[in-house]
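lol forgot to send this yesterday, sorry. struct tokens for the thing we talked abt
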């Protein structure tokens, strides 16, 4: 099977979020399963990779033509194509420009053209997020359509429904898709033209990054106004959990943490906790330590955390937070940490400190409002740190509640988005902490959980097979 993954960002070349991790790691895991996996992304400014020229061609932008230069590099043993164009991609950041619709229309058309030119002819094109969502529509309805049996099958993955790529109606002209598509059952979305809708309506199969989010996004509560469109495709929507790279997140080899350890004993973990307390200026006691590494936004549950935090400290927890984000949360947290010696906040992005928090904490808190997948809960498992999470999206799919199932549980889970439920859940975790033997048993259990990419890659292959049959 030949699969081309299309993404606007790919780790390690360019990354602004989890999408880059998926687009960079999944193809490597597919390759190990015997797939001829390749990647294509824009040749953004500042990518340092060995690239060789492959070809170039003009992309018809309706009123004018723009040149796409195709270069090829490698990510491990996976070939990666870069679509280069000075005017569109030689920029400091990836998104947020007035001509984003034009830039990613060009990108999508160039990918289709690259396939037509035979640079790589995949069985399946796997598109990710709105920046490549036009591709399924272009293959079906674009100017050079071929019979359905001749075109590659398409899978469209939504990583976060909040990002939809909605632009002025005139944006449709550039795509060269039929103007008749601008209606409620087509690409029109509340007076705008929506790239995301193109992916949802025209991809052979749709996926998102957890089974629970696949259901949630079809409801008004989580649907970001796309739930109606998604429900129309309910039969074709799948949820596949993302994975993490267990070699990056390994307490036995991690160079970012002062004391390495494995599931055979937690002396190293205890020493990491002491060091973390020291680094954070927290009292170096045996009190339970709760860590958070997060964007400081509503999505991550900050507006139920803020009213609950003082109570949690009163219950005897220490809390250390590493995060950057909304100013009002930063200011409120800064003010609280001045008042409470048991709370420390680091308002920045810091990879090394993130590792030290995963390793040195007893619990890891994720009270998310919604969470398409979430990686931090999988990461903290690796370090024997027990997650406390809200039952939503990927958190619901990866953390089993210890209160409901002490034999198989892996964390503490609460359902409703409510500060009182959060407090009660933290209370259960703090009670549990008193039983050292039970705590260590659960740590060992968490460390044995497998959230690597291999299992997810096999699920994607099954999905590609379904797309091909469809
Ligand atoms: P999202 O992609 O929605 O922010 P995820 O849980 O999927 O949430 O992934 C977040 C990733 O970013 C994790 O690997 C987490 O450790 C990391 N991260 C988040 N904030 C910070 C920060 N301030 N410093 C270091 N790493 C961070």
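and heres what i got for the seq, position by position
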């Amino acid at each position: 099977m030949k699969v081309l993954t299309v993404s606007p960002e790919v780790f390690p070349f360019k990354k602004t979020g989890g999408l880059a991790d998926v687009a960079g790691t999944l193809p490597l895991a597919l390759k190990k399963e015997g797939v001829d996996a390749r990647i294509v992304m824009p040749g953004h400014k500042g990518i340092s990779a060995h690239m060789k020229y492959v070809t170039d061609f003009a992309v018809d932008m309706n009123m004018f033509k723009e040149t796409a230069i195709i270069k090829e590099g490698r990510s491990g043993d996976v070939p990666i194509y870069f679509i280069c164009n000075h005017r569109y991609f030689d920029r400091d950041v990836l998104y947020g420009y007035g001509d984003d619709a034009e830039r990613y229309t060009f990108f999508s058309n160039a990918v289709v053209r690259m396939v037509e030119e035979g640079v790589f002819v995949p069985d399946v094109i796997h598109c990710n997020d709105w920046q490549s969502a036009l591709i399924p529509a272009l293959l079906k309805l674009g100017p050079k359509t071929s019979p359905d049996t001749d075109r590659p099958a398409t899978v469209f993955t939504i990583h976060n429904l909040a990002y939809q790529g909605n632009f002025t109606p005139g944006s449709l002209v550039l795509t060269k898709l039929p103007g008749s598509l601008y209606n409620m059952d087509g690409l029109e979305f509340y007076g705008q033209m929506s790239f995301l809708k193109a992916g949802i309506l025209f991809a052979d199969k749709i996926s998102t990054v957890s089974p629970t989010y696949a259901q949630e996004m079809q409801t008004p509560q989580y649907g970001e106004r796309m739930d109606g469109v998604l429900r129309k495709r309910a039969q074709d929507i799948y949820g596949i959990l993302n994975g993490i790279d267990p070699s990056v997140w390994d307490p036995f080899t991690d160079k970012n943490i002062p004391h390495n350890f494995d599931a055979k004993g937690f002396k190293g973990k205890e020493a990491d906790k002491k060091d973390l307390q020291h680094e954070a200026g927290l009292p170096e006691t045996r009190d339970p330590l709760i860590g958070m590494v997060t964007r400081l936004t509503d999505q991550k549950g900050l507006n139920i955390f803020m009213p609950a935090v003082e109570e949690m400290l009163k219950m005897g927890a220490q809390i250390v937070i590493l995060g950057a984000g909304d100013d009002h949360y930063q200011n409120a947290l800064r003010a609280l940490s001045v008042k409470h010696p048991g709370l420390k906040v680091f308002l920045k992005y810091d990879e090394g400190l993130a590792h030290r928090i995963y390793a040195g904490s007893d619990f890891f808190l994720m009270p998310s409002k919604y969470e398409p997948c979430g990686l931090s809960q999988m990461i903290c498992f690796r370090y024997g740190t027990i997650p406390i999470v809200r039952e939503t999206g990927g958190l619901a799919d990866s953390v089993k509640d210890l209160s409901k199932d002490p034999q198989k549980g892996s964390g503490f889970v609460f359902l409703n988005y409510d500060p009182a439920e959060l407090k009660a859940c933290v209370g259960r975790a703090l009670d549990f902490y008193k039983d050292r033997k039970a705590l260590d048993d659960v740590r060992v259990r968490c460390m044995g959980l497998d959230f690597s990419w291999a299992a997810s890659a096999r699920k994607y292959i099954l999905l590609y097979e379904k797309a091909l049959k469809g």
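The chain has 18 helices and 18 strands. anyway ping me if u want another try
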